[in-house]
## 1
Amino acid sequence: MRAVGGGLLAGALLLTGCATPRGRAPVEDRSAGQMAPKPAAAAEPVRPAAPAASAAGDARPTTYTVKPGDTLMRIGLETGQGWRDIARWNGIDNPNLIEVGQMLRVMPPASETVAAIKPVLPSKVETKPLDPKAAASGASGVSVASAASAPSASGSAPAVPAKDNDDEVQWAWPAAGPVATPFDESRNKGLAITGKAGDPVFAAADGRVVYAGSGLRGYGNLVIVKHNATYLTAYAHNQTLLVKEDQVVRRGQKIAEMGSSDAERVQLHFEVRRQGKPMDPSKLLPAR
């Protein structure tokens, strides 16, 4: 009986050992490792996201943070926009009331961009069936395709979105004098063209005047003309301004008279900015 009892006891111990799950702790460790979040994100510092680009092919950010000494006029020049546009996009009534650290929109909102390229369609279009005989014989002298694409006389023609290719701008020299100081992005962000007081200053290309005044320190009496969504030009140190803001000007039109306002000598400081960044005007102006 003792032997039998000992055998039964040994068998019971053997079954108990088999029923006990081996490797339990490692299984729990793997499960915990799968569910627990990685601590790397908490260890790394959070970096602010960079401003989104305004559009395809345009490297300018959509926002600008005001720095000490900034004015809306200077921000407009640096971002390639008219200061009045920036004020409108941000609901600013007084252009002198901007604060350091304030974030401003410096690109048009999507609604304004869509409105600018939305075709202007006639309010009422009268439709008539196409005469098959006329279409077959071509007696009218106009093909069906051209007739369908021609604007209706009862309304305005659809507005064609303005192209913004570099080749679209036709450039001309803004003054007749010699270049005294060439372009240098770090020291001279344009060309210094010399002359006599009162010499004419001309618009270098077709465009719209987005600034005319003396509120930009270092530029004297200044005219800024915006030519398209890419280019604007600046004409500084004039003695007399002959244009006003929002005025449309043509290439070769006299817009100012050369002077020495906020300068040591009579000269025209002429800048070309591409998406707000200064570039060498001599690369765009025709050879003399």
## 2
Amino acid sequence: MKFTPDLLTFENGSPVRTAEDWELRRKELLHLICREEFGYRPAAPKTVTGTVIGTETEALPACAICQTVEIAFDTEKGEFRFPIRFLYPNDNQAHPLILLVSFNMPSFPAEDLIANGFAAAGFAYSDISSDDGDFTSGLAGMFTRTGAGDEWGKIAIWTYAASRALDYLLTREEVDTDNVAICGHSRLGKTALYAGAMDERFRFTLANNSGCGGDALEQTKHEGAETVPYMNGKFSHWFCENHKKYSEMPIWEKIDQHMLVAAIAPRYVAIGSAIDDRWADPYSQQITATAATPAWEILGKRGYVGPAEQINVGEQYAEGCISYHLREGGHSLSTYDWQRYIEFMKKHL
């Protein structure tokens, strides 16, 4: 199947032939994704600080510590603060880190993480800005809105906070700064993908059940899947204003979700699906892995290394830079998913 738009063709119609060409094409894709889907983010602040405000060791694996840290940075309208949880093995070593954007107080599979030598951090998206059309809420209200069509939506706002948490975490001696992942589930899986595309310091992007507007290709939607018109009708605040026009036209004429995944190349991305999560459209998620693969191949790397037909429940294909797994069950971030993401990262550290 030929996927449109073609990843390896510039907007002016000329072909992408080299790694240098791809870097230019990637920048073109990022501008397109910002302008048409999520909106542009403000520049990073000059300084970001973190203050430890609490420490816990109870109910954790041996030699593990979990801290609550308050992140602070300046904005257009003053200082903004939000809390993160930071879990790490207390062994004076640097560890691969997974940063989770969470619906509530971040909860990690601590035993699995610590046993595999991982650290984790996370924050609740509601501590950044409410999940609705109120752009005076939290961080959203700290920047002047102009009404421009490419002004950032809530997903972009949540990713901005993820980058600020990363600013701080990269200063911690417990973090292996070369091996940091961004992770999210559902709408926060979409958030993880956009964060991974925009911030190259994330070596790994772990997107769980992200579906429409995330890693499910629009041009291959299956029965029961969420659609752009539905999403724009109920959750338009996730996106920039320009995205609304795609409720009336095929999104793939100009942009489709393989472009978002491809913008992460040459780094690593893991796509997690569940067989009963028809709303997220698991087979279209797998097809996106195939459709994004040329971005890695032009760089001499392997993208998705797996079959074209829908894989079986319980299988994972993680040899290339794009991992895809399909599990039983429905729409959730499960222990099984965490284990697959840890395995993928360990394979490519």
## 3
Amino acid sequence: MKQAWDIWGNVVITALSAVPVAVLAVFLLARRRGRAGHPDPWRTAAADVGALAGTAPWVWMILTPGTARGVTLVPLADLARQLAHLPPGAAFVQVGGNLLVFAALGALLPVRSARLASLSAVAGVAAAASATVEILQYGLRLGRVSSVDDVILNTAGAVLAALATRRWWARR
């Protein structure tokens, strides 16, 4: 865990420091939408800012340079290798981190929009976003492993987070 903090602590500190800015952004966006006659300005403003603020730090982490480069296209092969060869704490950070990457997006998309208020819509958006990030990792030669397992875990995390917010989903 100390190694994860040493590598990513600055991202966590920056993300937490941005919380007051995010709260201000919700307030200003909701006020602007309210003046424009939007039917639910606070709900959509909070969902928009929350999805962005909850996803951006993870994407920043994913797109920072690393030391290993490769592509793993066989489903669950990379995950099995990590679970077999990494210490339990490191494996937990890897799997847990991948589940959290698009969790805010998955939790708040269906709250924001009735068109996205289904598990299949959340899974589709999360899978597309995750695949885009994996392609960027490879294409930008960031020294990171682009893996189909990351797409699977990122998507699963978004869907699980969507299930947690189902009670507040926008109505059609």
